[in-house]
Every structure is written in structure tokens, then in C-alpha cells.
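Module 6 notes. Inverse folding takes a fixed backbone as the condition and produces residue identities as the prediction. Think of it as a translation problem where the source language is geometry and the target language is the twenty amino acids. Below is one complete input and output pair. Work through it position by position during the lab.
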């Protein structure tokens, strides 16, 4: 079982959840995703890993409620447990040192951009603009 350690709505219909999954948190790379199943008989849904804490053993997801399974997931509170969390899945994003880069994101892409492990590789002059406002990293 995989306990939810933090759960909150960060924008209308967009949810942030931190899940205890120590082995995944240690292995995951930028661009990989999880398959999550809330409980027995539930649907398996793919969600991108936005962030991870290898020391605390948590992975973070951010998703929009669009149908039954994301709606059910969004109602889960800290302390409740997910039946299955499988990952990290998918090919990691290819990362190279290109020097100074600009990252553009909006809506639910913005937290992914600003919380991404890519951020730690960006020079201080990089920007992460969203919704018309630039945010200095
Ligand atoms: C690799 C990968 C990573 C992903 N990462 C993220 C992520 O980080 N964040 C995120 O928000 N999403 C992500 N997604 C998308 C996410 O997996 C889906 O939004 C989720 O699986 C939807 O499940 P659901 O049961 O809530 O919705 P579903 O019930 O599957 O519904 C999906 C859509 O279909 C419509 N629909 C359903 N049934 C019908 C019907 N009978 N007639 C007409 N329309 C219908 C719904 O209204 C809805 O718009 C990712 C997907 C993939 C493949």
C-alpha cells in the first residue's frame, strides 16, 4: 500500500498529491510516469511524476480531474492509502547541457516546469513564465 502524505487542490480541478513510494522516489528520472490504482477493482491511470524526494521517499503528482478515476483520486486525503503505484515507467527525458535555456509553460504545465529536476540544472538566468507572468527560478 502507498500512503498519501499530502493532498490539496492547487487550482480549480487541479490536484497536488505527495505519495510515499520510497523505491520509486530513489529511481525516477525527469519525464517518467506512474500507473496508479486507487483500490481493488479500480481503473489504472497514468500520471507523470512531477517531483520526488529520494530522502523522504515521496513522489509528487499533479493532475486535472477529467473523469471518474481522477475524481476519485482527488477525494483522497493525507493518511489514506493507494492500492497500487507502479513505476517509474517510460523513457527518461534526454537532458544535455545546452547552456542558458528558456522554459515556457502554462496551466498544469507550470508546476511541472518549476518543480522539475531540470530546474536544478538551469542557470540562475533561466525563466519559467506562466500565464503571462515571468517567475525567476
Ligand atoms: C503517460 C501519461 C502521463 C499522464 N500524466 C498526466 C499528468 O501528470 N496529469 C494529468 O492531469 N493527466 C495526465 N495524464 C492523463 C491522465 O492519465 C488521464 O486524464 C486520466 O487517465 C483520466 O482518467 P479518468 O478516469 O479520470 O477519466 P476518463 O473517465 O478516462 O475520461 C477521460 C476523458 O474522456 C471523457 N469521457 C469519458 N467517458 C466518456 C464518454 N462515454 N463519452 C464522452 N466522453 C467521455 C471524459 O469526459 C474525459 O474528458 C497522463 C496520461 C499519460 C498517457
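Target side of the pair, the amino acids:
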Amino acid at each position: 500500500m502507498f500512503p498519501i502524505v499530502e493532498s490539496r487542490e492547487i487550482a480549480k480541478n487541479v490536484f497536488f498529491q505527495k505519495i510515499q513510494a520510497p523505491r520509486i522516489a530513489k529511481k525516477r528520472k525527469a519525464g517518467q510516469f506512474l500507473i496508479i490504482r486507487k483500490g481493488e477493482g479500480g481503473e489504472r491511470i497514468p500520471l507523470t511524476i512531477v517531483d520526488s524526494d529520494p530522502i523522504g521517499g515521496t513522489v509528487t503528482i499533479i493532475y486535472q480531474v477529467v473523469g471518474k478515476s481522477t475524481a476519485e483520486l482527488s477525494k483522497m486525503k493525507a493518511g489514506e492509502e493507494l492500492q497500487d503505484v507502479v513505476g517509474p515507467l517510460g523513457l527518461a527525458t534526454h537532458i544535455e547541457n545546452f547552456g542558458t535555456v528558456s522554459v515556457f509553460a502554462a496551466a498544469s504545465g507550470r508546476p511541472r516546469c518549476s518543480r522539475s529536476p531540470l530546474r536544478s540544472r538551469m542557470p540562475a538566468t533561466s525563466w519559467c513564465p506562466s500565464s503571462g507572468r515571468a517567475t525567476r527560478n
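Reference fact for the lab report: The chain has a mean pLDDT of 85.
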